[in-house]
Amino acid sequence: MSQFLARTRIGCHRFISRCLRHTLRTASALALAVAVPQTILPTTVEAADANRPNIVLIMADDMGFECVGANGSEHYRTPELDRLATGGMRFAHAYSQPICTPSRVQIMTGRYNFRNYVQFGYLHPEEITFGNVLK
User: Fold this and answer.
1) For residues 106 and 129, what is the distance between their CA atoms, to the nearest angstrom?
2) In angstroms, rounded to a whole number, what is the distance separating the alpha carbons of residues 82 and 70?
3) pLDDT tens-digit map of 68-114
4) Cα dist from 8 to 3, 11, 15, 75, whole Å
């Protein structure tokens, strides 16, 4: 009985190691098949259309105007936001709603919230949004 178990364990180890070797060979071949053509073939990179704007919109919950270094904060370090602020356009005067849904819809439409909704949470289907303008 113990010889049978010993053979079975050895057989299992051999089977598992064979399967593992086969899997590793297959994965290596697949990785080479994908990687080699991408390194050998020339890559064409096209610039974005110069007529379209490059817009980065950053929205954070519970972040005050005074929390960004570019707005005079001495308590928070925001080097990347400061760098973006010095090289781009900034909005220094805006209104925000106390809950997030109206704030997000206001950003999408550019309109005061009392003009946005058919009913709370439902934007009129004909409303033109930020995304529509940028198409």
Assistant:
1) 9
2) 5
3) 899 888 888 899 989 988 888 777 777 677 777 777 888 888 887 77
4) 8, 5, 10, 67
Residue 34: φ, ψ to 5°: -85, -40
CA 32 from centre of chain: 28
- Give residue 67's identity as a one-letter amino acid code: C
Q: Are 70 and 85 in contact (CB under 8 A)?
A: yes
Please tell me whether residues 88 and 99 are part of one structural domain. no
pTM confidence score: 0.43
More confident call, 25 vs 106 = 106
Cβ atoms of 124 and 111 closer than 8 Å: no
Verify that 18 and 37 share a domain, yes or no: yes
Residues, the chain: 135
Query: Helices (DSSP H) in the chain: which residue ranges?
Result: 2-40, 79-87, 100-109, 130-134
Q: How many domains does the chain have?
A: 3
Q: What is the CA angle 47-53-57, rounded to 5?
A: 115
